[in-house]
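User: structure tokens for this one?
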Amino acid sequence: MMIDGKQMHIQIQKGNIGRYVILPGDPGRCEKIARYFDEPKQLAQNREYTLWTGRLDGEPVAVCSTGIGGPSAAIALEELVECGADTFIRVGTSGGIVDEVKGGDIVIATAAIRQEGTSREYLPIEFPAAASFEVVSALRDAAVTLGLTHHIGVIQSKDSFYGEIRPSVQPIAEELLAKWRAWKAAGALTSEMETAALLIVSQVLHVRCGAVLNVLWNADNDDAPSIPPDAAERGVRTAVEALRILIREDNAG
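Assistant:
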């Protein structure tokens, strides 16, 4: 879907960006992330989609916001792939599920529970939302290099923010609480709203995608969370370092 030669929603065209893209949810975070790039500049802004470009180690890179939830995230990924990108790292915020995941930690997703609707319009629910091995490995190496407390494993993606925050007041409270207990018992690390859709769309389009999530608090045991002032930057730093690793590996063949 093109308008005046540009993608309908993100408002760019093929040749405007390179292979590597960081995907935050919040448009307001794009400029802050782009400050980690060389030669940063804003390229487009439309609806929930703000896009900046720049360079890392000489390679063109970009950051594009996705908005909240799977539908808008899937649109961004589809259109970015149309414009030539093939490697994506979602950076977002989340609430810890298992007790050992605390505010200020980061979580690197190996896969996502598909408790959302967007991915079901791409693949049957039996197909797993798995992250690309190369991206997971680069994120892990980046977190180690930066000395950040990190966890690696399965996360949960859902559509309803308040279904997680106050499930007991929802008409399907019993179902929501039972599923939450099941995710926690199985060791799911943290909860957010976009990763499952991004991973499934990336698998359908045969591109690489992973996710690193800033944990703001533990959803079960932080009644009055004290969010570290740099919590939201930890995942960004990890994603930028991971892109540097991927660029080196790709250039080495």
